[in-house]
Design brief:
Blueprint (H helix, E strand, L loop, with lengths): L4 E2 L8 E6 L9 E4 L8 H19 L6 H4 L6 H7 L13 H10 L2
Helix pairs in contact: 1-3
Protein backbone atom coordinates (compact mmCIF):
# COMPACT_ATOMS: atom_id res chain seq x y z
CA UNK A 1 0.00 0.00 0.00
CA UNK A 2 1.41 3.40 -0.96
CA UNK A 3 0.26 4.87 2.34
CA UNK A 4 2.10 2.26 4.35
CA UNK A 5 0.94 -0.21 6.92
CA UNK A 6 0.70 0.22 10.67
CA UNK A 7 2.75 -2.31 12.60
CA UNK A 8 0.97 -4.39 15.22
CA UNK A 9 2.18 -4.78 18.76
CA UNK A 10 3.05 -2.86 21.87
CA UNK A 11 4.70 0.53 21.73
CA UNK A 12 4.50 3.76 19.81
CA UNK A 13 2.82 3.92 16.42
CA UNK A 14 5.06 2.76 13.60
CA UNK A 15 4.18 2.70 9.92
CA UNK A 16 6.16 0.90 7.22
CA UNK A 17 6.12 0.78 3.44
CA UNK A 18 7.68 -1.39 0.77
CA UNK A 19 11.08 0.29 1.00
CA UNK A 20 14.16 -0.94 2.88
CA UNK A 21 14.28 -1.46 6.63
CA UNK A 22 16.75 1.16 7.87
CA UNK A 23 15.59 3.74 5.34
CA UNK A 24 12.90 6.28 6.12
CA UNK A 25 10.88 7.88 3.39
CA UNK A 26 9.88 11.56 3.37
CA UNK A 27 6.91 10.79 5.61
CA UNK A 28 9.08 9.12 8.23
CA UNK A 29 7.94 5.58 7.39
CA UNK A 30 10.38 2.70 7.59
CA UNK A 31 10.46 -0.28 5.26
CA UNK A 32 10.06 -4.04 5.29
CA UNK A 33 12.70 -5.25 2.83
CA UNK A 34 16.32 -6.21 3.41
CA UNK A 35 19.03 -4.36 1.54
CA UNK A 36 18.95 -6.62 -1.51
CA UNK A 37 15.47 -5.25 -2.22
CA UNK A 38 14.10 -8.73 -2.80
CA UNK A 39 13.93 -10.52 0.53
CA UNK A 40 11.89 -9.30 3.49
CA UNK A 41 13.83 -8.08 6.51
CA UNK A 42 12.99 -9.47 9.96
CA UNK A 43 10.21 -6.89 10.08
CA UNK A 44 8.95 -7.97 6.67
CA UNK A 45 8.90 -11.61 7.75
CA UNK A 46 6.84 -10.68 10.83
CA UNK A 47 4.33 -8.80 8.66
CA UNK A 48 4.08 -11.70 6.19
CA UNK A 49 3.63 -14.19 9.05
CA UNK A 50 0.75 -12.16 10.47
CA UNK A 51 -0.92 -11.74 7.08
CA UNK A 52 -0.72 -15.52 6.58
CA UNK A 53 -2.06 -16.17 10.07
CA UNK A 54 -4.95 -13.75 9.54
CA UNK A 55 -5.78 -15.37 6.21
CA UNK A 56 -5.69 -18.88 7.64
CA UNK A 57 -7.95 -17.83 10.51
CA UNK A 58 -10.47 -16.08 8.28
CA UNK A 59 -10.47 -18.47 5.32
CA UNK A 60 -9.77 -21.83 6.97
CA UNK A 61 -10.84 -21.27 10.57
CA UNK A 62 -13.79 -23.65 10.26
CA UNK A 63 -11.61 -26.48 8.96
CA UNK A 64 -10.58 -28.76 11.87
CA UNK A 65 -7.19 -29.35 10.24
CA UNK A 66 -6.34 -25.71 10.96
CA UNK A 67 -7.81 -25.51 14.46
CA UNK A 68 -4.39 -24.92 16.06
CA UNK A 69 -4.08 -21.62 14.21
CA UNK A 70 -7.16 -20.21 15.96
CA UNK A 71 -5.24 -20.05 19.24
CA UNK A 72 -2.03 -18.71 17.69
CA UNK A 73 -1.07 -15.20 18.73
CA UNK A 74 0.13 -12.74 16.09
CA UNK A 75 3.79 -11.75 16.00
CA UNK A 76 4.54 -8.44 17.75
CA UNK A 77 5.73 -6.58 14.65
CA UNK A 78 6.85 -3.53 16.63
CA UNK A 79 9.10 -5.68 18.82
CA UNK A 80 10.61 -7.28 15.72
CA UNK A 81 11.10 -3.86 14.11
CA UNK A 82 12.85 -2.49 17.19
CA UNK A 83 15.41 -5.31 17.09
CA UNK A 84 15.65 -5.74 13.30
CA UNK A 85 19.38 -5.77 12.46
CA UNK A 86 18.68 -3.84 9.24
CA UNK A 87 16.90 -1.00 11.01
CA UNK A 88 19.81 1.29 11.84
CA UNK A 89 21.99 0.48 8.86
CA UNK A 90 22.33 2.27 5.56
CA UNK A 91 23.92 -0.47 3.47
CA UNK A 92 21.51 -0.31 0.56
CA UNK A 93 22.81 -1.80 -2.67
CA UNK A 94 20.79 -1.17 -5.79
CA UNK A 95 22.13 -2.62 -9.02
CA UNK A 96 21.07 -1.14 -12.32
CA UNK A 97 19.97 -3.50 -15.08
CA UNK A 98 23.24 -2.98 -16.98
CA UNK A 99 25.25 -4.04 -13.93
CA UNK A 100 23.13 -7.16 -13.53
CA UNK A 101 23.59 -7.97 -17.23
CA UNK A 102 27.37 -7.57 -16.88
CA UNK A 103 27.42 -9.87 -13.88
CA UNK A 104 25.30 -12.41 -15.71
CA UNK A 105 27.55 -12.28 -18.80
CA UNK A 106 30.61 -12.81 -16.62
CA UNK A 107 29.13 -15.95 -15.11
CA UNK A 108 28.81 -17.46 -18.55
Amino acid sequence: DRDGRDLRGSGPDQRITTTYTGITDGRGYGGMFSFDGVHPSDTGHAVVANVLLDTIKSELGDDPRFAAFEAANPVDEKAVYSSDPHRDSRQVLVLERSALDSLSDGLG
